[in-house]
Amino acid sequence: MNMLFERKLAIPMEVKEMYPLTGDLNRVVEERTAALKAIFDGRSDQFLLIIGPCSADNEDSVLEYVNRLRLLAEKVRDRLFIVPRVYTNKPRTTGDGYKGMLHQPNPGEKPDMFKGIIAIRELHMRVLRETGMAAADEMLYPENYQYLDDMLGYVAVGARSVENQQHRLTASGIDVPVGMKNPTSGDFQVMLNAIQAAQHRHTFIYRGWEARSEGNPYAHAILRGYMNKHGQSMPNYHYEDLVLIDEFYRERALKNPAVVVDVNHSNSNKQYVEQIRIAREVMHSRRYNESLRRLIKGLMIESYLVDGAQEVGGCVFGQSITDPCLGWEKTERLVLDLAEMV
Would the pTM count as exceeding 0.90? Predict the structure, then answer.
């Protein structure tokens, strides 16, 4: 093969033995996961917000952000259930650029995968310990999920991964809600195929084992916009889009029909301030149509301490080095407004 095998990495069980969950953290994860499942199966009327930086690039700034988020979550807990977005690995369209903390614990240094595995486990553990909030992360690499599977409350499968069979089958064996994004082409049927596959039982190879999954009834849709054939961003959060996905769900008879709307990415054309307007429009659609109120379970929002984005190596504490994000002041105002709109 045209690659160099530099070293064999520790398996998930070994890493968990080195960095185990302590105290009552297991109970915290179980309680948060149970609350999320109640939202997706309709037992809870809380509205979900999955919110946080585009990429978790710095442990200190992420913890500063999530600790602020914890205090804000307390103010709105009767109406909103907030899950911090702590994305530790990032897909790159062309393969170039910063790939997240898993690859580079220090964005200014060369990749080190073992240090990255330790760094992301320590980061998620600090989030749990300091805030009592089980975070969301993206399953960019299915074989890496077990390094964090005892700590995450929510998992997303990205637009570039949702057509991949291994992602679908691994999602079927995950015991927390898994959001399947529409592909970059925007095809709803491809996304629904992924959800259907994730909800079924399967036998497949996982990390060298013959594995048998039980199916994940909490697999659901994330609408993030798409790219047309000319490479232009196109939204899919409008009322007509939401009605259409509701109809498609009914045709499929899938378990726990649910949609989370990602208000950034192609829905906003990465114009981060537009997230505010888009979130409000989705809430209006939800209030106008009872079927949509039941279907739309939450929003995904990209937010950090400071508005906008900077280049890798920039010195602004709490500003994204990937996609631009809402700063804290705008985030706080938006969350309080959304609580009033539920």
Answer: yes
